[in-house]
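Quick one:
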Amino acid sequence: MIPLNPSPVPVLWQFFDYGTKGSTPVDDWLSVQPETVQDLFNGLIKDNSKIDDPKSWGGSRKMQGELAKEEIWEFRIKHGNVQYRLLGTFGQSKKQAVFLIGCTHKMNVYDPHDCLGTALKRARAVKKKDGVRFYERKIQENI
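Output:
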């Protein structure tokens, strides 16, 4: 676990997974996805870690409505006929991002169906630092 404390601005973005004591739901979700999906997300994270302005991140978009108010965005990839999503928010320091939940999206249906509500709750907990742990997502360089 790495604390999200203010420090000098790093050159690259740092990505973390939301967690609670003994639980890392993002990693748990991603680990059961097809290996190609894992590799595509890793590549997206690796490439976007080098881009200063998150508005210029590839494969991402800012969410709308209540989610936008909490600064929630998503990384998107498509594999087969399924769209995979990692929803995240920004950490307490510059160039820190926190993945909140992973999900799939097909024909306007999210799985898990309550993932948007869960993302909102987790984003608010991140902002309050309320019982949340942050686990640094290591970027695999060989992909």
